[in-house]
Amino acid sequence: MLKKAYLLIKSLTYIEIFLSPVAILSAQNLALNKSTASSSVYKKVPGLVPGPNLLVDGNANPTLSMGHCYHGGDPGGGPNWVVVDLQGSFYVDYVYVFARNGNADRLDYFIVGLTSINYLAPASNILRGSYAMCGQYKYKTVVSARHTLKCNANLVPAYRYVIFQQPATGPGLFTICELEVYAVTNLNAKIWKRYYNNRLIGNSFKVITVNDRMRCMIKCLPGECYSVNFRQNKSTCELNKHVNGYALSSLNISLEWDFYEVQYA
Prior knowledge:
The strands form 5 sheets. A 7-stranded antiparallel β-sheet has the order 2-3-15-19-17-18-16. It has a 5-stranded antiparallel β-sheet with strand order 5-7-12-9-10, with no helix packed on it. A 3-stranded antiparallel β-sheet has the order 11-8-14, with no helix packed on it. The relative contact order is 0.20. It is elongated, with a radius of gyration of 19 Å. Helices cover 2% and strands 39% of the residues. A hairpin with a 4-residue loop joins strand 2 (8-10) and strand 3 (15-18). The chain has 2 domains: 2-23 and 187-264, Hepatocyte Growth Factor (3-Layer(bba) Sandwich), CATH 3.50.4; 36-183, Jelly Rolls. By secondary structure, the protein is mainly beta.
């Protein structure tokens, strides 16, 4: 089943533009029962070792004592990461992250990265900003809830390992009750998500003049460009490069500008 190309879906804060037909196919959780590793494991849960294997056991029960949640032991500003080996290279479309029934701030603004480096070996260390950025959750999380993050669709090539990490400003004790990872079903179907009156600062590598926003998006090529800023009244298009992500503080309110991120449909 296909949706018509250039279908527009509007909301109060953004608009999504489909640049090609969208195939609706069944999805499979690539992370289920796969190998995992973490920067630490919390040692003070009575009768339980809340290791990273619990992230991918297929049970999202949000109660820590039930034995289905990962609980890290790093302090605030520490490594606070987990990694999943998908056991094959995939273009990742989106991830689901399931929160515990308490301490939601430990998941706030979580980061999802992609890499081809095997960090499952003991003593591995994953540094923020050193891997391709699927994306960063732009909001505070909610207890006992599923949170969805779409990956940037201009990342190339496909990746084998998925990283989940708390931002450096987080409180530590990184805790997640389940992770699910889903691959792209149609590499040619993409969405441009628009943030009204916003502009990403400090990531532009090229500024061009174009007649409309669609031409601006077409100039943003996979592997080179990951988002755009567009100013309608001046026909100004800024192409942004941030393969390792950008600071959420760089996305600023800016009248007359709109910020667009590319995702898979």
